[in-house]
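#structure-requests
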Amino acid sequence: MAKTYRWPKYKAAADAFLTNGGNKYKAMLTAGYTATSADKRASTVFGRPEVIEYINQQKVLAAERHELTQDWIIERLMDLANSGRVLAKYKKVQEDGSIAWDFTGISEAELSVIQAIGVDYYTEGRGPDGVTVKKFRIKEPDVRQALVDLGRTMALFTDKVEVSGDLAERLREGQRQAYQRNKDREKTVH
């Protein structure tokens, strides 16, 4: 794809897009476009074949650099989704019916599914009879979110919104009016 004299600015926008989490408007501002231009031209710049090609190449290079593959992502999501089963064997029921954690013999892989571990100290009782109690807080992964992410990764379901009725007609009319305004502007510029 032939690159135009504007390529350095397009490339700057693409690089900003890749590092800012995919926000086209912010990427355009970072590349030096004005707020008005960023708003109006983002779809044009990011729709250019050479920009699309560049972004895709950079994503592939980043994935290779970090050894990021679909299998790796699926494996990690499966670990999170199965975390309840993995950690269940480390939950021990006490004589009073409460649950305590005992991580004796836990592997590094099993430990990696725990999101956070904290310790709280408090005193039960008052005065000289008070006993200091140590309580662990364990944050387990969000299994539901892991399953949703896994389903999306495997394209088991997609998020689609179908618009019909009055709203669909209003959207089509708005598109028609915008198209007509753009055509009118082009006539007055030439």
